[in-house]
Amino acid sequence: TNRFNVNGVMVSGDHFIHGTRVASAETFETRSPMDWDTVLGNVARGNEETAQLAIESATTAFSQWSGLSAKERAVYLHRLADLIEEHKEQIANVECSDMAMLFESLNLRLVPRGAANFRNYADLAVEHEERVWSSKGTLNRVIRTPAGPAVIITPWNAPFMLSTWKCAPALAAGNTVILKPAEWSPLSASVLADLIEKAEFPKGVFNIVQGLGSEVGNALVNDPRVKRISFTGSVPTARIIGKAAAENIVPFTAELGGKSCLLVFADADIDAAAKKAAGQFDDSGQVCMAGTRIIVEQSIKDEFLALFNKYADQHVMGDSRDSKTTMSAMIHPVHVDRVEGFVNRARENGDTILRGGKRFIEGKLWFEPTLIAPKSNQSEVVQSEIFGPVLTFQTFDTEEQGVELANSTVFGLSGILYTGNKERAERVGRLIRGGTIWVNTFLVRDLTAPFGGIGLSGLGREGGHYALEFHSDLKTLQILEG
Ligand code: ADP
């Protein structure tokens, strides 16, 4: 079989279908962003035939998996969570090479979160109580039934965490899964497949298909045997998937991009706000929830900028395996070109580059922490998602103006607000458009809370029972009493 060494871990480049590794005649190369000249390995490039095989597998396995009780399924999910915890370092080693995510973030935060996702959904599905009541002489019962095979399509940033976040509710709800990882970071999902095998899930319950979105992804979402589609990625792809879902009348969720605000009032802890603002450069800005538009009350502008620069200067660009590194290489040369293009156009358009603005080392994939004061709110760097270490800086005089600026894009994924006034926190927090608004903090997550976007940031909510509901068909069972 096609296995290669990634940071000391032997990773399979094949698909995982019906409990076995399946190769494809064609492959694509995967490389580490830190060392672009070296090929990590060749990954199976799935096609329509691969998609058919995986859907067949998931369809066959569905009758058995959906027939188990939530409690029986929970045993598998907890066993998988145990295995993720046991193999934490291996997973972190693979992803810190394949995606260049920081080893420490993976080891301390993102991989444990992957295990927590499975535990959380295993327990939530068991705790769920059916609604039962009497009316009009009948006993009514709302039953949540598994929907069928679910296709789950994930993006290249935070691939391990996101695939567990999206697969766990599907499996807990009784659906079988076909996971399609992004072609720019396909490897941690393959490690997950090894653990699924170790956890002895029934064959076909969990399948992984590798390949390009336009090829294998397209074939997956168009198949009428697929009953749910859960997608995280870009708006253009969401439109394609939405059309496929509409054709088959299948529910889908889409978690898309963001251009979230980081709104700072003069009554805030300015040091804490500036530190968090500079923290938006973490992961080289490849974070959908990042507060990329810094919007600060005019009266604290200079003080804020001085503190922001102090913290931004503390970033260390380096190897993702090094614990001193805070900003690693970006995912792909094509992506760095895109980010550089945004900055170059901003310069040409008369926006002011306040810091950074270029690659850290010519020809490599690190980009300097960059702050831009736009000429106007309509500047491209303010209105478009850049997905790199590029933030914009704007000011406001009144609360109303601040909120107006915060809400002035087509996106609405999240928002960050800094204020020392509790009433303002509530008031402005309710006014900012977005699925998640953090006040005086960022990224703290309760897994039972809903997560998703407004506007072009997406459709539907994941998290907690919201995702279980999405993956189920609700049935009302009515029995004549007496
Ligand atoms: P990003 O900008 O994050 O790369 P994409 O939407 O291009 O966003 O990719 C997100 C995921 O969607 C990836 O796994 C990709 O392979 C997949 N994808 C891309 N195009 C399609 C498509 N036409 N059908 C299904 N999946 C697709």
TrEMBL record:
Pfam families: Aldedh. Signal peptide: none annotated. The keyword Membrane does not apply. PROSITE patterns: ALDEHYDE_DEHYDR_CYS. This is Aldehyde dehydrogenase family 8 member A1. Residues 25-476 form the Aldehyde dehydrogenase domain. Belongs to the aldehyde dehydrogenase family. The keyword Oxidoreductase applies. Keywords: Oxidoreductase. GO terms for molecular function: oxidoreductase activity, acting on the aldehyde or oxo group of donors, NAD or NADP as acceptor.
